């Protein structure tokens, strides 16, 4: 591929920086300094166009303030001082449109028509982060499920469907079978992890346990708080830090409960969304992390913990179990508060176990953005 367009519409219009937004911003960031062209585009209502100044700012400002000085990035940003729209039907088969978000409405209808037309030469690839709105609707708000099956049907029209885990790939195969869709088979390409392993640690006393994840039901924070209360009642001394925005503004159960625990003198904090720099500091201060999620398409917080040498207490099944299987994790039944408490208790009390998991985490290797993007740029067809 000579030119890769990145549909960054949603990410360019939010300052949220979890999951999909982290992936899209990393694609734009690392694409800026590659040999071939990686070009972010934004849906403008009737066609795709260059991002505006404010949209460009939202794609980058969550990173370090000095990032724009990185070699090549300033020139990369300057190209959008003039407005332009993209005619994908005029692109050759050496171009690729990468869709790493979940389009809907008119944008999805446009992409669906583009994928279906016999007049296009440009290749299309889409990232299927997960199928939870279809396979586990109990974890998804009805407003987020609207149009999701239409989006999945659209995936059946593109040349490449990229899944971050074997679990998600299997879910895609199941949807294809049940919906009668042929389409592309999935390519399993786990996400690269943004950031470098910590060389210096500043673990606090009492030990701090970090939990990173959006506040929503499937992330299972309620059972983590149950587990913490069990351990505090036993007299164990530790601090629990929770990082993650509320999925919905009225989703107050966890934040209210944290406030109540604080009023009772327990060492716990909910920090909401934090900057990358703040998150790095929290990782550095933590002894280990806990990620009690019940359902994921990958499990990015687990990988981000492990690359920094921090063991993680998490599930041993599904997509999270795939990440955990490589070492560095203590897997438990996350549907049980008692099992979660037992896992946390083990890492707080057993220094030998903790050290062994730290060693396993430090020895793991992870895909890089360079290798991930090489694979995207070097393959025109699904395997």
In short:
Helices cover 40% and strands 15% of the residues. With 383 residues, it is an alpha/beta fold.
Explained architecture:
There is one protein chain. This protein is α/β, with parallel strands linked by helices and 383 residues long. It folds into 2 domains: 3-192 and 367-378, Glycogen Phosphorylase B (Rossmann fold); 208-363, Rossmann fold, CATH 3.40.50.2000. Helix content is 40%, strand content 15%. The strands form 2 sheets. Strands 3-2-1-4-5-6-7 form a 7-stranded mixed sheet, with helices on both faces. A 6-stranded parallel sheet has the order 10-9-8-11-12-13, sandwiched between helices. Strand 9 (239-243), helix 10 (253-263) and strand 10 (268-270) form a beta-alpha-beta unit. Helix 9 (221-233) crosses helix 14. It is globular, with a radius of gyration of 21 Å. The chain starts with a strand and ends in a 5-residue tail after the last helix. Residues 379-383 have low confidence and may be disordered.
Secondary-structure arrangement, i.e. CATH architecture of the largest domain: 3-Layer(aba) Sandwich
- The helix count comes to 16
Mean pLDDT: 90
CATH superfamily of the largest domain: Glycogen Phosphorylase B
End-to-end Cα distance: 16 Å
Strand content: 15-25%
The parts where pLDDT drops under 50 for at least 5 residues are 379-383
Instruction: Spell out the helices and strands N to C.
Output: EHEEHHEHEHHHEHEEHEHEHEHEHEHHH
Strand order of the largest sheet: 3-2-1-4-5-6-7
